[in-house]
Amino acid sequence: MLAFQRRRLAAAELGSGASWALLWQRRPLVNVRLKWYPSVFREHTGRRCFGLTEEALDLRREELLVLRSSEPDLVDRLCKLLMLTRDRSLPLNAVNQLRWDLGFPSDYLDSLLPRHPDRLRLVRLPEGGGAVDLVRWDDRLAVSELQRNADPGADAEGLAFPIRFTRGFGLKKKCVSWLQEWQTLPYTSPYADASGLDPRTDVSEKRIVGVFHELLHLTLAKKTRRANLSHLRRPLSLPFKFTKVFGRHPGIFYVSQKLATHTIVLREAYGGGRELIQKHPLLGIRERYLELMRRGCIDNRRRWSLREMEMETVEFAP
Fold first, then answer.
1. Pfam families attached here (predicted)?
2. To 5 degrees, how large is the angle CA 234–CA 269–CA 79?
Protein backbone atom coordinates (compact mmCIF):
# COMPACT_ATOMS: atom_id res chain seq x y z
CA MET A 1 0.00 0.00 0.00
CA LEU A 2 3.01 2.31 0.43
CA ALA A 3 3.34 3.20 -3.24
CA PHE A 4 -0.42 3.86 -3.48
CA GLN A 5 -0.15 6.28 -0.54
CA ARG A 6 2.80 8.08 -2.14
CA ARG A 7 0.94 8.31 -5.42
CA ARG A 8 -2.05 9.97 -3.74
CA LEU A 9 0.19 12.48 -1.98
CA ALA A 10 1.94 13.38 -5.19
CA ALA A 11 -1.38 13.63 -7.01
CA ALA A 12 -2.56 16.30 -4.59
CA GLU A 13 -0.48 18.75 -6.63
CA LEU A 14 -1.14 17.44 -10.11
CA GLY A 15 2.12 17.75 -11.99
CA SER A 16 3.64 20.55 -9.93
CA GLY A 17 5.74 18.30 -7.68
CA ALA A 18 5.18 17.68 -3.99
CA SER A 19 7.60 18.41 -1.16
CA TRP A 20 8.80 15.30 0.61
CA ALA A 21 10.94 16.96 3.31
CA LEU A 22 8.77 15.69 6.18
CA LEU A 23 8.63 12.21 4.72
CA TRP A 24 12.41 12.17 4.39
CA GLN A 25 12.75 12.97 8.07
CA ARG A 26 10.41 10.15 9.04
CA ARG A 27 11.33 7.62 6.35
CA PRO A 28 15.00 7.84 5.32
CA LEU A 29 14.52 5.32 2.50
CA VAL A 30 11.41 6.88 0.96
CA ASN A 31 13.41 8.43 -1.88
CA VAL A 32 14.86 5.01 -2.71
CA ARG A 33 11.43 3.38 -2.61
CA LEU A 34 9.90 5.93 -4.95
CA LYS A 35 12.69 5.25 -7.42
CA TRP A 36 11.54 1.63 -7.55
CA TYR A 37 8.54 2.80 -9.59
CA PRO A 38 9.84 5.17 -12.31
CA SER A 39 6.71 4.64 -14.39
CA VAL A 40 4.67 6.25 -11.58
CA PHE A 41 7.03 8.74 -9.90
CA ARG A 42 9.54 11.12 -11.47
CA GLU A 43 12.22 12.93 -9.51
CA HIS A 44 12.77 16.64 -10.07
CA THR A 45 16.49 17.01 -10.62
CA GLY A 46 18.22 19.37 -8.24
CA ARG A 47 15.30 19.35 -5.79
CA ARG A 48 14.25 16.92 -3.10
CA CYS A 49 10.78 16.37 -4.46
CA PHE A 50 8.88 13.94 -6.63
CA GLY A 51 5.89 14.24 -8.90
CA LEU A 52 3.80 11.86 -10.98
CA THR A 53 4.76 10.86 -14.49
CA GLU A 54 2.52 12.02 -17.31
CA GLU A 55 1.02 8.55 -17.64
CA ALA A 56 0.30 8.37 -13.91
CA LEU A 57 -1.17 11.88 -14.00
CA ASP A 58 -3.52 10.90 -16.82
CA LEU A 59 -4.64 7.89 -14.83
CA ARG A 60 -5.10 10.02 -11.71
CA ARG A 61 -7.26 12.49 -13.64
CA GLU A 62 -9.35 9.61 -14.92
CA GLU A 63 -9.66 8.29 -11.37
CA LEU A 64 -10.93 11.66 -10.16
CA LEU A 65 -13.57 11.66 -12.90
CA VAL A 66 -14.69 8.16 -11.90
CA LEU A 67 -14.84 9.22 -8.24
CA ARG A 68 -17.02 12.22 -9.10
CA SER A 69 -19.40 10.17 -11.25
CA SER A 70 -19.51 7.46 -8.56
CA GLU A 71 -20.19 9.84 -5.68
CA PRO A 72 -23.96 9.15 -5.43
CA ASP A 73 -23.23 5.42 -5.32
CA LEU A 74 -20.45 5.84 -2.71
CA VAL A 75 -22.69 7.97 -0.50
CA ASP A 76 -25.44 5.35 -0.73
CA ARG A 77 -22.92 2.69 0.31
CA LEU A 78 -21.91 4.68 3.38
CA CYS A 79 -25.55 5.33 4.30
CA LYS A 80 -26.39 1.64 3.94
CA LEU A 81 -23.41 0.71 6.09
CA LEU A 82 -24.68 3.04 8.83
CA MET A 83 -28.22 1.71 8.42
CA LEU A 84 -26.90 -1.75 9.26
CA THR A 85 -25.81 -0.53 12.69
CA ARG A 86 -27.92 -0.38 15.83
CA ASP A 87 -27.37 3.34 16.50
CA ARG A 88 -27.03 4.48 12.85
CA SER A 89 -23.48 5.51 13.67
CA LEU A 90 -19.95 4.15 13.36
CA PRO A 91 -16.68 5.28 14.96
CA LEU A 92 -14.17 6.64 12.49
CA ASN A 93 -11.75 3.77 13.10
CA ALA A 94 -14.43 1.31 11.99
CA VAL A 95 -15.25 3.30 8.84
CA ASN A 96 -11.58 3.85 8.05
CA GLN A 97 -10.89 0.13 8.20
CA LEU A 98 -13.45 -0.39 5.43
CA ARG A 99 -12.69 2.81 3.50
CA TRP A 100 -10.55 1.18 0.80
CA ASP A 101 -12.95 -1.72 0.30
CA LEU A 102 -15.95 0.61 0.01
CA GLY A 103 -14.16 2.81 -2.52
CA PHE A 104 -14.09 6.02 -0.50
CA PRO A 105 -11.36 8.55 -1.35
CA SER A 106 -8.68 9.00 1.31
CA ASP A 107 -10.04 12.48 2.09
CA TYR A 108 -13.70 11.40 2.26
CA LEU A 109 -14.23 13.26 5.55
CA ASP A 110 -13.40 16.54 3.78
CA SER A 111 -14.54 15.80 0.25
CA LEU A 112 -17.58 13.56 0.65
CA LEU A 113 -19.34 14.27 3.95
CA PRO A 114 -19.54 18.11 3.72
CA ARG A 115 -21.38 17.86 0.39
CA HIS A 116 -24.15 15.73 1.90
CA PRO A 117 -25.08 17.31 5.26
CA ASP A 118 -28.69 16.19 4.83
CA ARG A 119 -27.58 12.54 4.92
CA LEU A 120 -24.29 12.30 6.83
CA ARG A 121 -22.50 14.16 9.59
CA LEU A 122 -19.24 13.94 11.48
CA VAL A 123 -19.59 14.08 15.27
CA ARG A 124 -17.18 14.13 18.19
CA LEU A 125 -17.53 11.31 20.69
CA PRO A 126 -17.57 12.02 24.45
CA GLU A 127 -14.79 9.49 25.04
CA GLY A 128 -12.67 11.06 22.33
CA GLY A 129 -12.34 10.52 18.63
CA GLY A 130 -15.09 10.92 16.09
CA ALA A 131 -17.90 9.06 14.39
CA VAL A 132 -19.98 9.24 11.23
CA ASP A 133 -23.72 9.51 11.88
CA LEU A 134 -26.66 8.87 9.60
CA VAL A 135 -28.83 12.00 9.53
CA ARG A 136 -31.99 10.39 8.19
CA TRP A 137 -33.24 6.90 7.42
CA ASP A 138 -33.80 6.12 3.73
CA ASP A 139 -36.43 3.45 3.05
CA ARG A 140 -35.23 3.28 -0.54
CA LEU A 141 -31.90 1.84 0.67
CA ALA A 142 -33.34 -0.46 3.33
CA VAL A 143 -33.62 -3.37 0.90
CA SER A 144 -30.93 -6.02 1.05
CA GLU A 145 -29.22 -7.42 -2.03
CA LEU A 146 -30.81 -10.80 -1.32
CA GLN A 147 -34.27 -9.22 -1.28
CA ARG A 148 -33.53 -7.21 -4.39
CA ASN A 149 -32.48 -10.26 -6.37
CA ALA A 150 -35.19 -12.61 -5.09
CA ASP A 151 -37.60 -14.15 -7.56
CA PRO A 152 -40.95 -12.30 -7.68
CA GLY A 153 -42.79 -15.36 -6.39
CA ALA A 154 -40.28 -16.23 -3.65
CA ASP A 155 -41.34 -16.39 -0.02
CA ALA A 156 -40.08 -13.07 1.39
CA GLU A 157 -39.86 -14.48 4.90
CA GLY A 158 -37.87 -17.59 3.98
CA LEU A 159 -35.35 -16.33 1.45
CA ALA A 160 -32.45 -18.68 0.76
CA PHE A 161 -28.85 -17.61 0.13
CA PRO A 162 -27.11 -18.53 -3.12
CA ILE A 163 -24.85 -21.49 -2.42
CA ARG A 164 -21.75 -22.41 -4.42
CA PHE A 165 -19.16 -24.94 -3.29
CA THR A 166 -15.66 -25.47 -4.62
CA ARG A 167 -15.43 -28.28 -7.15
CA GLY A 168 -14.91 -31.54 -5.31
CA PHE A 169 -16.17 -30.19 -2.02
CA GLY A 170 -18.36 -32.78 -0.35
CA LEU A 171 -20.87 -32.40 2.47
CA LYS A 172 -21.95 -35.24 4.69
CA LYS A 173 -25.57 -36.27 4.26
CA LYS A 174 -26.36 -34.97 7.74
CA CYS A 175 -24.89 -31.55 6.88
CA VAL A 176 -26.81 -31.39 3.61
CA SER A 177 -30.04 -32.05 5.46
CA TRP A 178 -29.25 -29.36 8.05
CA LEU A 179 -28.33 -26.82 5.37
CA GLN A 180 -31.53 -27.42 3.42
CA GLU A 181 -33.59 -26.93 6.56
CA TRP A 182 -31.56 -23.88 7.60
CA GLN A 183 -32.19 -22.23 4.23
CA THR A 184 -35.96 -22.41 4.81
CA LEU A 185 -35.76 -20.61 8.17
CA PRO A 186 -37.17 -17.05 8.42
CA TYR A 187 -34.94 -14.44 6.82
CA THR A 188 -34.38 -11.32 8.92
CA SER A 189 -33.42 -8.28 6.88
CA PRO A 190 -30.06 -6.84 8.01
CA TYR A 191 -31.83 -3.45 8.14
CA ALA A 192 -34.52 -4.71 10.53
CA ASP A 193 -34.48 -4.59 14.33
CA ALA A 194 -33.21 -7.98 15.48
CA SER A 195 -33.22 -7.31 19.23
CA GLY A 196 -36.02 -9.85 19.74
CA LEU A 197 -34.07 -12.77 18.25
CA ASP A 198 -32.63 -15.42 20.56
CA PRO A 199 -28.85 -15.41 19.76
CA ARG A 200 -28.67 -19.17 20.44
CA THR A 201 -30.97 -20.09 17.55
CA ASP A 202 -30.34 -20.91 13.90
CA VAL A 203 -32.67 -18.06 12.97
CA SER A 204 -30.27 -15.66 14.67
CA GLU A 205 -27.34 -17.26 12.83
CA LYS A 206 -29.15 -16.75 9.54
CA ARG A 207 -29.54 -13.09 10.43
CA ILE A 208 -25.76 -12.82 11.06
CA VAL A 209 -25.05 -14.46 7.71
CA GLY A 210 -27.47 -11.97 6.14
CA VAL A 211 -25.64 -9.02 7.72
CA PHE A 212 -22.29 -10.07 6.26
CA HIS A 213 -23.85 -11.06 2.96
CA GLU A 214 -25.10 -7.48 2.69
CA LEU A 215 -21.89 -5.93 4.04
CA LEU A 216 -19.74 -7.74 1.49
CA HIS A 217 -22.09 -6.64 -1.27
CA LEU A 218 -21.39 -3.05 -0.21
CA THR A 219 -17.67 -3.49 -0.88
CA LEU A 220 -16.32 -2.95 -4.39
CA ALA A 221 -14.60 -6.32 -4.66
CA LYS A 222 -17.19 -8.21 -2.57
CA LYS A 223 -14.55 -9.11 0.00
CA THR A 224 -12.72 -7.66 2.99
CA ARG A 225 -10.05 -8.69 5.45
CA ARG A 226 -11.39 -10.35 8.56
CA ALA A 227 -9.40 -7.84 10.65
CA ASN A 228 -11.55 -5.05 9.16
CA LEU A 229 -14.56 -6.47 10.98
CA SER A 230 -13.03 -6.23 14.45
CA HIS A 231 -14.78 -2.95 15.34
CA LEU A 232 -18.21 -4.00 14.08
CA ARG A 233 -19.40 -6.48 16.70
CA ARG A 234 -21.19 -4.01 18.97
CA PRO A 235 -22.47 -1.61 16.27
CA LEU A 236 -23.97 -4.55 14.35
CA SER A 237 -25.32 -6.24 17.51
CA LEU A 238 -23.32 -9.40 16.91
CA PRO A 239 -22.43 -12.08 19.46
CA PHE A 240 -18.92 -12.95 20.54
CA LYS A 241 -17.06 -15.19 18.08
CA PHE A 242 -19.38 -14.05 15.29
CA THR A 243 -16.70 -14.88 12.72
CA LYS A 244 -17.49 -18.57 13.16
CA VAL A 245 -20.28 -18.17 10.60
CA PHE A 246 -17.69 -17.86 7.83
CA GLY A 247 -16.39 -21.35 8.52
CA ARG A 248 -19.86 -22.81 9.08
CA HIS A 249 -21.11 -21.60 5.71
CA PRO A 250 -18.40 -22.35 3.12
CA GLY A 251 -20.96 -22.32 0.33
CA ILE A 252 -21.67 -18.63 0.97
CA PHE A 253 -18.30 -17.34 2.13
CA TYR A 254 -14.79 -18.25 1.06
CA VAL A 255 -11.97 -17.59 3.53
CA SER A 256 -8.76 -16.86 1.64
CA GLN A 257 -5.45 -17.11 3.51
CA LYS A 258 -3.34 -15.61 0.77
CA LEU A 259 -0.16 -13.92 2.08
CA ALA A 260 -1.07 -15.04 5.62
CA THR A 261 -4.06 -12.66 5.60
CA HIS A 262 -7.58 -13.93 6.25
CA THR A 263 -9.92 -12.42 3.67
CA ILE A 264 -13.67 -13.06 3.62
CA VAL A 265 -14.97 -13.40 0.07
CA LEU A 266 -18.58 -13.58 -1.10
CA ARG A 267 -18.61 -16.63 -3.37
CA GLU A 268 -21.64 -15.73 -5.47
CA ALA A 269 -19.97 -12.50 -6.65
CA TYR A 270 -17.28 -14.52 -8.46
CA GLY A 271 -19.46 -17.23 -9.95
CA GLY A 272 -16.95 -19.92 -9.05
CA GLY A 273 -14.07 -18.21 -10.88
CA ARG A 274 -11.36 -15.68 -10.18
CA GLU A 275 -13.01 -12.62 -11.70
CA LEU A 276 -15.91 -10.58 -10.40
CA ILE A 277 -19.10 -11.02 -12.35
CA GLN A 278 -19.74 -7.27 -12.11
CA LYS A 279 -16.73 -5.00 -11.67
CA HIS A 280 -16.97 -1.43 -10.35
CA PRO A 281 -15.14 1.19 -12.49
CA LEU A 282 -12.87 2.08 -9.54
CA LEU A 283 -11.53 -1.48 -9.51
CA GLY A 284 -10.55 -1.09 -13.15
CA ILE A 285 -8.60 2.04 -12.24
CA ARG A 286 -6.79 0.20 -9.44
CA GLU A 287 -5.86 -2.63 -11.78
CA ARG A 288 -4.32 -0.13 -14.18
CA TYR A 289 -2.27 1.45 -11.39
CA LEU A 290 -0.91 -1.97 -10.49
CA GLU A 291 -0.04 -2.71 -14.10
CA LEU A 292 1.73 0.64 -14.36
CA MET A 293 3.74 -0.11 -11.23
CA ARG A 294 4.65 -3.61 -12.45
CA ARG A 295 5.79 -2.32 -15.81
CA GLY A 296 8.19 0.18 -14.34
CA CYS A 297 9.37 -1.77 -11.33
CA ILE A 298 13.18 -1.69 -11.35
CA ASP A 299 13.88 -4.28 -8.69
CA ASN A 300 12.09 -7.49 -9.71
CA ARG A 301 12.02 -8.60 -6.11
CA ARG A 302 9.58 -5.77 -5.37
CA ARG A 303 7.00 -7.46 -7.58
CA TRP A 304 6.22 -9.69 -4.63
CA SER A 305 5.06 -6.69 -2.61
CA LEU A 306 2.68 -5.70 -5.40
CA ARG A 307 0.79 -8.96 -4.84
CA GLU A 308 -0.45 -7.51 -1.56
CA MET A 309 -2.34 -4.84 -3.47
CA GLU A 310 -4.06 -7.13 -5.97
CA MET A 311 -7.63 -6.37 -4.99
CA GLU A 312 -9.35 -8.54 -7.60
CA THR A 313 -7.39 -11.82 -7.47
CA VAL A 314 -9.14 -14.49 -5.44
CA GLU A 315 -7.66 -17.92 -4.88
CA PHE A 316 -10.55 -20.27 -5.65
CA ALA A 317 -9.70 -23.89 -6.12
CA PRO A 318 -10.29 -25.00 -9.71
1. PORR (PF11955)
2. 40
Using left for φ > 0, alpha for ψ between -120 and 50, and beta otherwise, residue 267 falls in alpha
Q: What is the Cα–Cα distance from 253 to 225, expressed in whole angstroms? A: 12
pLDDT tens-digit map of 74-131:
999 999 999 999 999 999 999 999 999 999 999 999 999 999 999 999 999 888 889 9
Dihedral sign (CA 125, 129, 135, 136)? negative
- The sheet with strand 263-266 has its strands ordered as 223-225, 263-266, 253-256
Burial classification of residue 227, based on how many CB atoms lie within 10 Å of its CB (0-12 exposed, 13-18 middle, 19 or more buried): exposed
Packed helices 281-296 and 2-11: angle between N→C axes, nearest 10 degrees:
100
CA atoms of 238 and 211, how far apart (whole Å): 9
The predicted-structure confidence for 195-252, as pLDDT tens digits, reads as follows: 899 989 999 999 999 999 999 999 999 999 999 998 899 999 999 889 999 999 999 9
**CA separation for the pair 204, 234 (Å, rounded):** 15
